[in-house]
Amino acid sequence: MSFGEGHPALDKNTVFRRTFRFLLFPQGNIDFRNWVKKATIHYYENTIKMEIYDYGDTDEWIEQVQKTPQTMHLIMMDGCGQVLSGLRLAECYGVEHSVDFDYEKSDVLTHVLTMKYKKMTRNTGKAAMKMLSQ
Known about the structure:
Pnp Oxidase, Chain A; 2 helices; six-stranded antiparallel barrel; globular; 7 strands; mainly beta
């Protein structure tokens, strides 16, 4: 298989988004950032289902999302932590939340959270980096 001239795969500066290293946080409060283990976006239903790692204040953060719709940012990074792109999810609120406790496993505790959102905006490059300071 060959790519035609001008195909993005032939440009050495092309960055392909990967499916790892995601960070989720509410706008204006990066202190409540949560590492995302897995995220599934249902574009037609305006929902995002995530599995997020628990590290202390995760319950407090989830309670906030359930009470008050918030603008959330999902940042995608490369293996070195450089921001590649981001999604801005306006007016997110929780619709489902569960945690599996299993005596036979010693995995890190994760929360499965499904949120609805009104509008999604995609950002890349510098615009995505700027999301970290909002």
